[in-house]
Amino acid sequence: MRVLVMLDGTVTDAETPLIRVDDLGITRGDGVFETILVVGGKPRELGPHLDRLARSAAMLQLPVPDRAAWERCVQLVLDNWQGGDEMALKLVYTRGPEFGDGSPTGYAMGLPIGEKVRAARESGVTAVLLDRGYDPEIVARAPWLLLGAKSLSYAVNMAAYRHAESVGADEVIFVATDGSVLEGPTSNVVTATGNTLRTTPPSSGILRGTTQGALFRAAERAGWVTKVEPMTVRELKDAEAVFLASSVRKITRVHTLDGVVLPDSSALHKELNALYESEY
Predict the structure, then answer these.
(1) Cβ distance 86 to 38 under 8 Å?
(2) pLDDT tens digit sequence for 191-214
(3) Does Lyase show up as a keyword for this record (predicted)?
(4) End-to-end CA separation in angstroms for the chain
(5) Which residues contact 230 (CB under 8 A, 6 or more apart)?
(6) Identical fold, 3-113 and 118-277
């Protein structure tokens, strides 16, 4: 079951070819996107996701997204969804056809959530550390690298996943050349030690996490200390627990890192997921 709505409000058959073959989102990855979890017909963190879409579009110098149009587009997907209590809602915004009139392409699509994702929520994942190939100091002086933008250029991220699979791992945690921890290809890294949750800052060239943000808000109300600051690999490995936060997978525990089994964090995982769910 899929639902596809174009940005102009047209509800379309998801099986019908619609995107021009010269669309720059396809030929050059010149566009941005967001993926939002919908539960019971309610999108989670829609505002922060639309904010991030606008930030990413600005970094790519795309036309400013029409927020009202996107909100209508989202609502139409929700109104037409018949595929169950949960779905992944994907928003895609590209520069449009290379030989078009300059208008961007935009659409929202509702997608079912796969069993593999659902299983990982419960059982946790294995992860490997991979070099992302840049130093965080370059973020400010090289904006054209688009570090921190959620662009459609995900070929490196998908290659990282294939490498992880080839060495028997489920997930990846990227590391900068200075030895600091960055993020996963599609997630933010969160560690827990004592009553403190920690994640790495967007200034490192990573995406500002919407799910991570929701978790931290709930945790702070429950008395946890939260920190957004640089983290070394040593600090990551010394943490009492490691989690990956993403919209569709929610809070997923890492039970094995670089082949080393981590201390059992299943009880803490349940507690953090309960905190996250309390936001909704």
Answers:
(1) yes
(2) 999 999 999 999 999 999 999 999
(3) yes
(4) 25
(5) 136, 180, 181, 200, 201, 204
(6) no
pLDDT digits (tens, 9 = 90+) for 18-60: 788 889 999 999 999 999 999 999 999 999 999 999 999 999 9
Tokens of 89: 């809602």
| Cβ–Cβ < 8 Å for 189, 173 | yes
Question: 114: how many CB neighbours lie within 10 A of its CB?
Answer: 11
Query: 138-161 in b/e burial notation, b at 16+ Cβ within 10 A?
Result: ebeeeeeeebbbbbbbeeeeeebb
Answer positive or negative: Cα dihedral of 83, 88, 94, 98.
negative
* Domains of the chain by residue range: 3-113, 118-277
118-277, CATH topology level: D-amino Acid Aminotransferase; Chain A, domain 2 (3.20.10)
Residue 169 backbone dihedrals phi, psi, to 5 degrees:
-110, 160
| Spatial separation of the C-alpha atoms in residues 90 and 77, rounded to whole Å | 10
Tell me yes or no: is domain 3-113 CATH 3.40.250.10: no
SS3 content of the chain, % helix, strand, coil (to 5): 35, 30, 35
CA-to-CA distance for 120 and 251, rounded, in angstroms? 10
Q: Contact, 209 vs 184, CB < 8 A? A: no
